[in-house]
Recover the amino acids of this structure.
């Protein structure tokens, strides 16, 4: 039972370490994607393009 708990703790720790490393290295791309998507949605909202689409349609 003890080794199961230790194994689970090690797996959770390794998962958080991997997730942290990925987010640390990909944070710039995530921010860039969010800014570009926000700018595109703002452009679509301002131009209007004559159609009455809801915001969920791309």
């Amino acid at each position: 039972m003890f080794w199961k708990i230790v194994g689970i703790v090690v797996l959770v720790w390794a998962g958080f370490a991997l997730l942290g490393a990925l987010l640390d290295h990909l944070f710039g791309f995530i921010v860039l994607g969010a800014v570009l998507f926000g700018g595109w949605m703002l452009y679509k909202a301002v131009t209007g393009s004559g159609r009455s689409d809801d915001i969920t349609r791309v």
About this structure: Helices lie at 2-47. The mean pLDDT is 87. The first helix runs from residue 2 to 47. The radius of gyration is 21 Å.
